Structure formats: structure tokens, C-alpha cells
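> tool_call: predict_assembly(chains=three)
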Amino acid sequence: MNNKFIQIYENLLNEYGNQNWWPIHENTDPFEEITIGAILTQNTSWKNVEKSIQNLIENNLLSFEKLDKVDIEVLKKLIKPSGFYNQKAKTIKETIKTLKNIPRNKIDRETLLSIKGIGRETADCILLYGLNKPFFVVDAYTKRIFSRAGLINQNMKYDEIQKKFIENLPKDIQIYKEYHALIVEHGKRICLKRNPNCKECSISYICIKIF
DNA sequence: AGCCAGGCCAAGC
DNA sequence: GCTTGGCATGGC
């Protein structure tokens, strides 16, 4: 496979280096922390999510078992910094209730999507980073960068975009993990919503929409 | 001082 | 099916 999707991956990796997602704290179960983090970061900056996660750690609550028992009003207060805290608290509670009795190797995309508050992106994050399954994550940055580059259409739906990536990349979990993280980094640093910094963009030679 | 962030859902065409 | 509004805090 030699195509623009791979070229862009190599350029971004060269530019930013290995991102090593997902960040995990000590003494927590990676799957559980990733699941909580994936819910908290919905349409929310990671800086704010870190505050909420710190609150949970300081209160010794960053585990499914503890969060399952804690009063939801307490949970709401602790995750307040990451916004949408009423919905997210409910989603966390429901997620734990659903997942706690299912063996991890039986948790699939359908299971996750059946939970209210978990959509495709959140489900794929949990599958990829939490369960090491080959699901490519598509987010707002992915749509922005790759539609500007002319590699996808803006009106394409989530699953269509995901298919494009899967078709054009080797089925490699490490690449999926790294690529999504690199896309987020590039979206934050260079390919901004209003004033993208095209002069400093390492993939502008591919892009059809230079600002 | 607005605008935006690692989305999702329900309601209304 | 597709579009729109609501959800909410904190950083820049």
C-alpha cells in the first residue's frame, strides 16, 4: 500500500514523534480509565478531562467497582470540570452497569453502542485503546484535516470515513492508535478551525485547500 | 470576550 | 433519512 493516507501518517509521525496514547495513571485499570476518559472527553478538551480524572483519583474512585457504588450526585461534582456533567455521569453509571458483568473479550462495538451516551467515536476509542482491537477512530479533527486535503468528502458519514482509512492502511493496531493521536495533535497545532497555519503544515503539499 | 474543545441524543422536518 | 438545539466547563 502506497497512498496518501500512509504518506500523511509518515509525515505526521516524523513531525511530532510517537504520541503514546492513551495516557494512564498508576494503579488504575487501563481499560477502565480509558473508558471513563473516552466518555469525559466527548466534545471537551483533554485539559479539562485531566482535572476530572484527578478529582476521581484523589477521591479513590477511578475504578468501575468504586464508581458503581458512588452516589451519582457526588460523581457529577467530581467530573464538573469536563462539562456536560449531568449526561456524562449518567453515561458512566450506565456503562459500568452494562459492562461489569460481561467478560472483556466479549465486549464488542454493538454492546458499547447500545449504551445511551456512547456513540461511534467513543465506542471505537474504547475498542482500540482500551481493548486493543483494530477499530480506526474518526473524530472532528479527522474530518477537518482529511476533507481539506481532499481525501474524503465533508458529507461522508462516520462509518464511510472509517472504511476509507481501513482500506488504505495496513490492519495494524499500533498504527491505528498512533495515527489517531497524530491527527489530534495536528488538528490542535496546525489545522485549526478558523485560521489553519498552512505555512507550517508538513502535509500542505498534499492539501487542496490552502488558506 | 468570544470561540472552541479528542460527541451524543432527541425532536422536528 | 437529514438538520438543529441542548448539554457546560475552562483555556486561550
